[in-house]
Every structure is written in C-alpha cells, then in structure tokens.
Amino acid sequence: MKKLLVFFLIYISCSNIFANDSNKNEFIFSYDFLIAGFSGSRISNGKNNFDLSLNMANFYLENNTTCLGIRFIPANYSYYFYDNEHIFNISIITFYWNLFEFIIRMDSSGSGYDRHIFGPFFSINPLSINSAGNLINGISYSAGLKFTLMHNGMSSRKVHIFPNVEIGYINNNGNHGMFFMVNIAALPVILFPLGILLYSIGMF
After folding, report:
1. pTM reported for the whole predicted model
2. What 3-state DSSP class applies to 130?
3. Going from the N-terminus, what domains does the chain have, and what CATH number goes with each?
C-alpha cells in the first residue's frame, strides 16, 4: 500500500506540470451511478471467465491540462459464471491518460459537450469479498486501453457512461491473462422504458 500511495502522489504531481495558467490547471469532476457491464478473460490457470458486474457509482477526476485522470469505484458487485461465485469488490482505483482530450481538445474546459476518454490505463482492486463473506487474499490489477463516452446528464458533472470499453492485461491474484470489458449506464436504460410504461397507462 505504501508503493500505491507513493505512485498516487507522483501521479497527482504530474497533473500540475503546466501550472503557468491557473485557468487551465483545473480538475474536471464527474460522476455516474449504477453502471452495468460484462467482461471476459482468458487467464493462465486455463479458465475462460465471463462475468456480469454492477458498479454502484463511478467518480472521475481529470486534470484539464495534462488530461491525467483517476476513476474511483467505491463498490462493485460481480457474478462469475465459471465458478458460479458472487464477488463484492471495494475501492477500485483506475489511473488513466486521456490522449483524446490531450490531443484534440486540450484547451477545452470539458463542460457543455460529451466527453471522450481514450488512452492507456492502470487499474487496481485491493479488497474483495467472496460469496461466503471471506476476504480474498491478494490484489488484482489490470492495464491496457480504454474508451469511454460520457454523455452530459442534468449537469456538467452528472454524466451517463455509454459505453465504457476496456481491453488489455489482467492479473487476478497471481493468475494473469488477457481481458475485455464493456459497461453502460444502467439507470437511463431502466428509467426510459419505465417512463414510457407510465406514460402509456396515463400516469403523466
């Protein structure tokens, strides 16, 4: 954990490289709730894993100048088909460099339009609990490329993730391999047909 803390401090420091213009040295904060997804992986123990997942929330913090960002997922539920197991993950942290914004929209404030994230990432999951309620020993981490499209919600900070795609390398408690993941915002998907149903029966 000490190494992770040192890495985190260095990462934040890098976000202040271009601090000459205070207007450009701003952090863009955004969030979303209930993000559903599925993923697949082929790891060294011979397993072909497929799982469904649900993030309770995603919190993004990105420097507007360097486009270095952090995504924090406080809680995640995953169901693994291969092992028929339920896993509850706590405090998933992802570091990324948003090359799309860095190259294309470096001078933008990041508000008033749909944001794109495309670039390398590194994600770490330090704490997991299995369906028996026991802590899983070891730390899981992954690295690769990610693409995220953030649609503006009711405010510039409230966004809808639609979609988030990740592909790359994964190390799950010492078992390593390749993986892919696709996530979408579940709340609009749920509320839209519900709104149509309520409208059709005369509730509005």
Report:
1. 0.76
2. coil
3. 28-200 (2.40.160)
